[in-house]
């Protein structure tokens, strides 16, 4: 195996500190707020709520916990159905199982790679026939691109079913001028280490329903009743965010706009240098939407490019560059093999095609010009070389 001449590994998306994090961490230490509550938690919640334009936000230990709380607030329980985007990270759907509920997976459509309104409509149509409407619809905004929220909201409103917007990857993105994560009854964000801003691990639940979010805080702190003697009338969770980690989040939020600009510039650079290669098609940005371009994603037509996604990932890996396939659709996951799935069209599964041909390129906001040059160089080389070889064989 050829050994890379490059020492530095280029990651898909690595944490990018601003330098100000330490200030908030030091404050937490100086005031001894070393707990899953405190001034940084309160401030971080208020700052996120203001940034996206909602009434309130609850800081929690992960995006997954935020989804779980949203399902609890909507009363999702044993035997209930929840519709969920199929093309996503498994964390979108795991909390459905925590509640003993049953997921129904909805395909993507080609314009946003996100939930297909057509497939959603068919799923609702069947649910009405069965007399088993879902209790919630979890809509994911993949790689920073908003789903077709207007169409999806119209359909869900028609059936009176609330939306949980999984905006784990789309903080700072907009749909028709409105912040991603604010379209559903509840929205969730993630601050995991690989997201556009990070607290190393953490999440946020947002809503305009203050009363419901008060209940979320209660559930996230072991559902402790208002009594001095530790009384509990229902089962809760330990889901609150540490005051130290919230401090990291505050400093990260201060530079979010810069991080978005950097990721969008990275996308633009890849697009300018690679979109003229045969068979490469970049993830679109729907008109009137603004993607944060968390990850630059594209599809590769093997016949035209002369190289498949897995071959290209291997070539890049040998150069110490991390690239990844697009999320494996949840309806194809062994653990969800018995779940129902609605494709975009009866005989067209968009998420499966995206999985088969989709690739995510290194997109971290801390990438240097040299890093970008390196990735671009090796992709151009591989596609052009393979093409030449293919042409020689053909002639
Ligand atoms: C990262 C992610 C989550 C989960 O967030 P965690 O903070 O890691 O629990 C949920 N949904 C999507 C789409 C994600 O990318």
UniProtKB/TrEMBL annotation:
Modified residues (N6-(pyridoxal phosphate)lysine): 195
Active site: 195 (proton acceptor)
CDD domains in the record: AHBA_syn
InterPro entries named among the record's database cross-references: DegT/StrS_aminotransferase, PyrdxlP-dep_Trfase, PyrdxlP-dep_Trfase_major, PyrdxlP-dep_Trfase_small
Gene3D superfamilies associated with the record: Aspartate Aminotransferase, domain 1, Type I PLP-dependent aspartate aminotransferase-like (Major domain)
PANTHER family documented for this protein: DTDP-4-AMINO-4,6-DIDEOXYGALACTOSE TRANSAMINASE, TRANSAMINASE
Protein name according to UniProt: Pyridoxal phosphate-dependent aminotransferase EpsN
Organism: Neobacillus bataviensis
């Amino acid at each position: 195996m050829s050994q890379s001449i490059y020492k530095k590994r280029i990651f898909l998306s690595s944490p990018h500190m601003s330098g100000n994090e330490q200030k908030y961490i030091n404050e937490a230490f100086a005031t001894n707020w070393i707990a899953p509550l405190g001034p940084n938690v309160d401030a971080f919640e208020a700052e996120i709520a203001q940034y996206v334009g909602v009434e309130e936000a609850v800081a929690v230990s992960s995006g997954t916990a935020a989804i779980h709380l949203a399902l609890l607030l909507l009363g999702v329980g044993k035997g209930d159905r929840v519709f969920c985007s199929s093309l996503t990270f498994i964390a979108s759907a795991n909390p459905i199982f925590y509640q003993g509920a049953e997921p129904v997976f909805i395909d993507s459509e080609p314009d946003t790679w996100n939930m297909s309104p057509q497939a959603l409509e068919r799923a609702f149509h069947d649910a009405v026939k069965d007399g088993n409407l879902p209790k919630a619809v979890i809509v994911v905004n993949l790689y920073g691109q908003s789903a077709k929220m207007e169409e999806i909201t119209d359909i869900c409103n028609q059936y009176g079913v609330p939306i949980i917007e999984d905006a784990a990857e789309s903080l700072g993105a907009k749909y028709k001028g409105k912040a991603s994560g604010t379209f559903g009854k509840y929205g969730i964000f993630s601050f995991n280490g690989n997201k556009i801003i990070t607290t190393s691990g953490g999440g946020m639940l947002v809503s305009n329903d203050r009363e419901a979010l008060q209940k979320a805080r209660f559930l996230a702190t072991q559902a402790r009743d208002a009594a001095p003697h530790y009384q509990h009338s229902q089962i809760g969770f330990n889901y609150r965010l540490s005051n130290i980690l919230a401090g990291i989040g505050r400093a990260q939020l201060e530079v979010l706009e810069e991080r978005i600009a950097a990721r969008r510039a990275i996308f633009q650079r890849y697009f300018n240098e690679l979109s003229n290669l045969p068979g490469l098609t970049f993830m679109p940005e729907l008109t009137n939407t603004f993607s944060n371009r968390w990850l630059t994603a594209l599809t590769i037509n093997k016949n035209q490019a002369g190289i498949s996604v897995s071959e290209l990932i291997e070539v890049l890996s040998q150069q110490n560059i991390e690239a990844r396939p697009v999320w494996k659709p949840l309806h194809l996951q062994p653990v969800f093999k018995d779940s129902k799935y609605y494709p975009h069209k009866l005989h067209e599964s968009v998420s499966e095609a995206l999985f088969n041909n989709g690739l995510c390129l290194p997109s971290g906001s801390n990438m240097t010009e040299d890093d970008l040059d390196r990735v671009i160089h090796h992709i151009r080389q591989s596609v052009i070389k393979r093409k030449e070889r293919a042409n020689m064989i053909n002639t």
